[in-house]
Amino acid sequence: MKYVLLDDDAIEIGGTNLTILSMFEDRINETVRLSTRDLSKLDLIKHADKIWIIGNIMNLFQRQDDIRDVLFDTITRFVKIEFDYNFCPYRGEIPHEKLGNNRCSCPYGTTGINQIASTYNKIIEKASHIFFMSERQRSIYANHIPLLDFSKTTILSSCFSKQSLALFESLKATPKNNRYAILQGFGGWHSEAKGADIAKNFCITNNLEYDILPIQKYENHIKLLSQYKGLVFLPIIDDTCPRAIIEARLLGLHVITNINCQHVTEWWWKEESKTLDYISSRPQTFWSIIDKI
Question: What is the pTM of this model?
Answer without folding.
Answer: 0.96
